[in-house]
Amino acid sequence: MTTSLSPSSAGASGRLPRIAVLATGGTIAGSAPDATNTAGYQAGVIGVAQLLAAVPGLDAIAAIHAEQVASIDSKDMSLALWSTLAQRVNALLASDDIDGVVITHGTDTLEETAYFLQLCVKSAKPCVLTAAMRPASALSADGPLNLLNAVTLAASGAAAGQGVLVAFNNRIHCARDVAKFSTYAVDAFQSPEIGALGWVQDGRVEFQRKALRPHTVDTPFAAAQVWPQVDIVVSYAGVSRVAVDALVAAGVRGLVIAGTGNGSIHGAVQTALAEAAAQGVAVVRASRVGSGHVMHNGAAKDDALGFVSAGTLSPYKARVLLLLALAAGTSGKEALQRVFDTY
To answer: Residue 2: what pLDDT?
Structure first.
């Protein structure tokens, strides 16, 4: 599928699209003592007005409504802020005055926030996240162009109905697929296995495919006021069961295991997780590998042990889905496996 649309042709009414830009902080809003410093900076110190002022030509693409939702380093993203962000996005997109939303975000947890919104935004209007790998103060900062492309994408009309998107380094990624793959490179985000949805460059937007999993208006999920405790544990050579036992004792409702290979789990941890599942803790088996899928092992292992397969979701996105499923009242291995097979 190829869909392309230029911003100038997006508004049949003759007016510019009205795009809400919600700033949350991150490297894109970071500042360092000098232009050659791309690591020793403080994230989230530059306000949304200054971010927008650094992007020439925005006023020819869209009428901008700007809000500062937070000013954090995204490593400190919280469930409470997720709830606030989802509620604000839904309120804006429900307005006839807003045609789309762009969110500026830190790169560290962008993939988790994007997937959370993919499941909680209840509108077919565009919702696009963007970020930067270099602070705003840096030589060749990548934030302004990423922000320009994100607004272009949100204003194009082609993004409508495509779910929550990530615009980064000229590529358009699906929120479910995208992951950060570099600690420093400006092309830090990729969609492993199946690739990007399309691209945006010099005012042109083109989609080569669309997301097939249900999203946004086709999901039953919503941001919660009170979240269940869900954590991630990792399997590795010589791992003990101490972390699992401690989390179960602390009252955790769900555990995602970042297993080796095809979600395989060290014997000691597998025993601890099976005991946790028998006590009613939801256990989801994912992989730490970074791409591929975790096969459901059926009666031979997963069913016998009470585990759920994460499928193609990373451990971090599996945690997001498990949080939302448990918050919605879904319980039991069979029901949770249906959720993971669907979303």
So the answer is: 40
